[in-house]
Design a protein that fits this description.
29 helices, EC 3.4.19.12, thiol protease, 1104 residues, metal-dependent deubiquitinase activity, USP, 30% strand, six-stranded mixed sheet, ubiquitinyl hydrolase 1, alpha+beta
Length: 1104
């Protein structure tokens, strides 16, 4: 039985409705169903009622099933537990379910969506009953559904308040089930999506969400389905590009995977190619801005290729803004291109009204007459008309607007309808080309569900004329109905919101926040070209080749992982690897603080015999088989790893796994030493001899490296090694040496030369380290330089060594700010670290500032204080690895001084509001902003006849106003981080009198939320026509006549939802009653790269 019932009981309105209205008899089937089964908004395929009479209730079996009945082409029955299902206390409740009869006989993959009400009623009076309703998708795994706690038994047996008889009377009752089998046109109604396969069900796959990239996913799917666009992207040459650095290649790869993969596709490569670090992609951005930036990027990549012009051809239309006189022949107009159209939602019932509003004509008469050149003041009409629409029309519905009362952006959830088809002919200029109709078909709806601060994006797309509408919701693609495309995304209240049930209310409350914010329409006459079928030839062969190779590699790796349990890894130490090893033992395996040695490794089948394996090893190292023998390394009790015994050669059935299990227990892989027998004809070393490994500590090079091995009889004295070593090292015979035994880390002991190896407890695989004996003076000199004079000190350094990776804090690594690493000891302190880093960077260590980083992502954590002089072990916590990342800054000043001073950067915009440079300052924290301005004045060039005065300011969050300092603020109190700007105050402003107005001016590009550049102040003169104001603005900005011609000027009122009102040459803006927040906006293309998108949101930048 389904335990889900418990949770359903509360939801399913088990209790009779509280409304004081007619009680409907169970036998009035239609009326009863209408009252107790809410309309779920789905079409009903079949409706049946089945009643089952039961007597002698108390003698019934624990579990009963009714006779079968048919509904909607399926067989059903009632499943009853008269005294409760086992998971409720016995004899306490009744459990009753609707059961799908004989699910095993149903065709594979069957399902049925049913809404049902289960009723127990009195056999004499059908108005006495208990009812509960639910709905469910019946599938093989969930073929019964209903109520474990349908009702308490005592309530059924006793007469309830307001009724004349009990439900179960004289142990008899009717059990009825009302079943509506619903149409499921999409096949996914109430689907739980366990094991759902998008590719199989729809032919498409989804995109994985990286955190908050669903806004990007919905747009990418829409662009992918615009096949002409996909073909153009595939035409960009990318053979030599890297996917994480080239947007074109990364997008091609995403598109190719969407075409060929049967699993959801990742976008990490793509966002990396945008130059986004993980954080950027987790900010929800505005889709329109993302679309615009992506298309600009691709357009520049398409220049000079077969794809050149594709984006303009698909998405660019033209509109004309005009002022036309009524009584004289005069018109002033300008034509502009657009990639998308922003339409108002507020106050508009549907898309048609939004278009009407866009081209609405404003009458200029009365006091608002138009100054027409050569005709004086005239009545005129002002407006916008379209000259052409592009084949693919992107319509942005303005669901997000600024609300002055709340001083914030808000989401508008009003109802706004849009059709499957729209004729845009009436919004075109009279001279437009009408050789083909301007009829458009809806092919995409991008939806936002939620409020301003978050929520979720998905896309509804009709990929071509034949394919049905599909919902692309991140990694899942499902079919949808027409109603889900239109009605459910209009926003506002659903039209038929009648059922008053709790369930319906939940559905309704949710709907209000889910609505369309971008529509994609394709011109009907262009559809066959824009959505032309995609062929094999449309995919670049180099891309296919590259991705097929990668797929094979992934599959091979997957196979390797799956077969991993059949293999083990054998790592082989040779005399050559030993001679390069600097550390404990013969190689590093799993030391906490140091990377493992790079050793020759073999992947070996566990069942491979030793003789086969040995011949592979011999072949690999180019030795005859009889010249090598392999020793197994074991983990000794004292935590060292040493060769222990040679593998026996005479057991032909010995397998690699048996060797590992018997000779090297407690190890996952096999660690071996390759012992080369130089002359197999000579007798083997006697059983009484031992194999000893030698290491040389070189004081001049300060290193400790392997120096091969020797076989020594146990009875020999340790001192007998000295002549052998001198000969091997080609030193003068008789050179005095000191010998040390490497017992284990932290335990290195000087050996007594007169004792035998047996007395010194030396065994196979032990390590003896030697150094040339030094005179006292030399030892003293080495130690005074901080160097190691003997192996004991050096081993201690090795035991505590760590790799510190130094990275520049603010710059990408370059010649002056390299990334580098140093090996230091955990016992060394801050001063030693800064000295060594200073030596590497050739920079005074007192002028280096270091910042620790977080172990998991290497982001900056906290600035290290020199005064604490911590050792590296303290600095490195909680890094428990071999390396830590520390960020450095090269300063022009000592860090001691920094502790009493404030470091600030000021961006200088001069007299012409252009960013001329950034100036860093380090001033006492008690300095005032006036002092900062005085210091800045010494570094910048002021205009010769200017005011000589500097203003320092911040920019308001929305990018529209300056936030000026008074000058007396202490710089130590300015919150960090801060962006400071400074400009030369124009004479005109200083000399302005009471009759003049000083207003704020800011730059934006088409949308008010797209502020860019730096806002400034400007003087407005009484009675001055705007054509003259514009000349003064041009002089203030220092821009050419050609550039100023591209600017549009608008009054931005803080107090309205209105679009900016654009200013004409003969307007006098002085006459506007300026509220404190009202500003003049300069609408022109952003060339500064300093966009401030929306309120306190970073602009989207795509680099790759």
């Amino acid at each position: 039985m389904n335990d889900t019932m418990d949770t359903l009981d509360e939801k399913a309105n088990g209790s009779p409705s509280m409304e004081i209205d007619e009680i409907v008899s169970v036998r009035s089937h239609e009326a009863f169903a209408a009252k107790h089964m809410p309309d779920l908004g789905q079409d009903v395929k079949d409706f049946q009622v089945f009643t089952w009479r039961l007597d002698n209730w108390k003698k019934l079996d624990k579990k009963l099933t009714s006779p079968e009945f048919e509904c909607g082409g399926h067989k059903w029955r009632i499943l009853l537990f008269p005294f409760g299902n086992s998971n409720a206390p016995p004899n306490d409740t009744v459990s009753v379910y609707l059961d799908y009869a004989e699910p095993k006989k149903a065709p594979e993959g069957w399902h049925a969506c049913a809404q049902f009400a289960l009723v127990i009623s009195n056999i004499h009076d059908p108005t006495v009953f208990t009812v509960s309703h639910a709905h469910h998708r019946f599938i093989a795994e969930e073929c019964d559904w209903g109520f474990t706690r349908f009702s308490e038994l005592r309530k059924l047996f006793n007469t309830q308040e307001g009724q004349l008889r009990p439900t179960i009377e004289n142990e008899s009752a009717d059990i009825s089930v009302f079943v509506r089998v619903l149409e499921d046109p999409t096949g996914v109604l109430w689907h739980n999506f366990v094991n759902y396969d998008s590719k199989k069900e729809t032919g498409f796959v989804g995109l994985k969400n990286q955190g908050a990239t669903c806004y990007m996913n919905s747009l990418l799917q829409s662009l992918f389905c615009t096949r002409y666009f996909r073909k153009a992207v595939f035409q960009i040459p990318t053979e030599d590009d890297l996917p994480t650095e080239s947007v074109s290649l990364a997008l091609q790869r995403v598109f190719y995977h969407l075409q060929t993969s049967d699993q959801p596709v990742g976008t990490t490569e793509l966002t990396k190619s945008f130059g986004w670090k993980s954080l950027d992609s987790f900010l929800q951005h505005d889709v329109q801005e993302f679309n615009r930036v992506l298309q600009d990027k691709l357009e520049s990549k398409m220049k000079g290729t077969k794809a050149e012009g594709a984006i303009a051809k698909l998405f660019v239309g033209k509109m004309k803004s005009y002022i036309k006189c009524v009584n004289v022949e005069y018109e002033s107009s300008r034509t502009e291109e657009f990639n998308d159209i922003q339409l108002n939602v507020k106050g508009m019932r549907n898309l048609y009204e939004s278009f009407k509003d866009y081209v609405a004509v404003e009458n200029m008469d009365g006091e608002n007459k138009y100054q027409a050149e050569g005709f004086g003041l005239q009545d005129a009409k002002k407006g916008i008309i379209f000259e052409s629409f592009p084949p693919v029309l992107h319509l942005q519905l303005k669901r997000f607007e600024y609300d002055i009362q709340r001083d914030a952006m808000v989401k508008i959830n009003d109802r706004h309808e849009f059709p499957f088809e729209i004729d845009l002919g009436e919004f075109l200029d009279a001279n437009a080309d009408r050789s083909k109709p301007w009829k458009y078909k809806l092919t995409g709806v991008l939806v936002h569900s939620g409020d301003l601060h978050g929520g979720h994006y998905f896309a509804l797309i009709k990929p071509d004329r034949e394919t049905r509408w599909l919902k692309f919701d991140d990694d899942r693609v499902t079919p949808v109905t027409d109603k889900e495309v239109l009605e459910e995304n209009y926003g506002g209240e659903p039209l038929n919101s009648s059922p008053p049930t709790a369930q319906r209310n939940q559905v309704r409350a949710m709907k209000r926040f889910t609505n369309a914010y971008m529509l994609v329409y394709i011109r009907e006459s262009a559809m066959d070209e824009v959505l032309a079928p995609f062929t094999e030839e449309d995919t670049p062969p180099h891309l296919k080749r590259r991705l097929d190779e990668e797929r094979l590699q992934i599959e091979a790796k997957k196979r390797e992982r799956e077969e991993q349990h059949l293999f083990l890894t054998a790592k082989v130490i040779t005399d050559e690897t030993f001679s390069r090893h600097e550390g404990f033992d013969l190689a590093t395996f799993d030391e906490k603080n140091w990377p493992p040695s790079d050793l020759p490794s073999f992947r070996v089948l566990k069942q491979e015999t030793y003789s086969v394996f040995k011949s592979r090893v011999a072949q690999h190292f180019n030795y005859p088989e009889n010249q090598i023998r392999l020793w197994v390394l074991v983990n000794r009790q004292n935590k060292t790893v040493r060769p222990d015994t040679a593998i026996p050669e005479n057991e032909s059935t010995l397998t690699v796994e048996v060797i590992r299990n018997n000779m090297a227990a407690r190890q996952n892989d096999l660690r071996l030493y390759l012992d080369v027998i130089t002359d197999p004809s000579k007798p083997e070393p006697s059983p009484q001899s031992i194999m000893v490994f030698l290491k040389h500590f070189d004081t001049s090079k300060q290193n400790l490296l392997g120096a091969g091995k020797v076989y020594m009889p146990r009875t020999c004295k340790v001192g007998d090694l000295v002549p052998i070593i001198n000969e091997r090292m080609r030193w003068t015979p008789g050179t005095p040496l000191k010998l040390y035994e490497e017992i284990k880390p932290g335990m290195i002991e000087l050996m007594k030369p007169k004792l035998s190896f047996a007395q010194s407890e030396i065994q196979d695989g032990d390590v003896i380290c030697f150094q040339v004996e030094l005179p006292e003076k030399e030892i003293h000199d080495l130690e005074s330089q901080g160097l190691h004079s003997n192996p004991i000190h050096f081993y201690d350094f090795i035991q505590n060594r760590v790799m510190i990776i130094f990275r520049p804090k603010y710059d990408d690594p370059d010649h002056d700010h390299p990334e580098f690493s140093l090996v230091l000891s955990k016992k060394q302190n801050y001063d030693t670290m800064s000295t060594k880093a200073g030596e590497y960077l050739r920079h005074d260590p007192i002028k280096l500032r270091f910042t620790t980083t977080h172990a998991n992502n290497a982001n900056a954590k906290s600035v290290l204080k020199r005064s604490l002089n911590q050792n590296l072990a303290e600095i490195m916590t909680p890094y428990f690895t071999a390396s830590a990342v520390i960020l450095y800054e090269k300063l022009d000043v000592s860090i001691v001084e920094l502790e009493t001073k404030r470091s600030l950067k000021v961006i200088w915009t001069g007299i012409h509001n252009k960013e001329e440079g950034t100036f860093p300052f380090l001033l006492p924290k008690t300095s005032s902003v006036h002092d900062l301005a005085d210091n800045l004045a010494k570094q910048v060039t002021l205009s010769p006849s200017g005011s000589g005065k500097i203003r320092i300011f911040e920019i308001s969050r929305d990018g529209k106003n300056q936030k000026e300092f008074t000058g007396s603020e202490m710089i130590g109190n300015i919150p960090d981080p801060v962006d400071l700007y400074a400009e030369e105050i124009p004479r005109e402003e200083l000399e302005a009198d009471d009759a003049d107005k000083v207003i704020g001016v800011f730059h934006f590009s088409r949308e008010l939320t797209r502020a860019h550049g730096v806002p400034f102040k400007f003087v407005v003169k009484r009675g001055e026509k705007f054509c003259d104001t514009k000349k003064r603005l041009q002089a203030r900005l220092g821009v050419s006549d050609k550039d100023i011609a591209k600017y549009r000027f608008a009054l931005i009122q803080a107090s309205t939802f209105k679009q900016p009102s654009y200013i004409e040459d003969d307007d006098t803006i002085y006459e506007h009653q300026f509220a404190p927040e009202d500003v003049l906006g300069l609408d022109h293309i952003d060339k500064s790269g300093r966009a401030k998108a929306g309120v306190a949101e970073k602009a989207i930048v795509i680099r790759g």
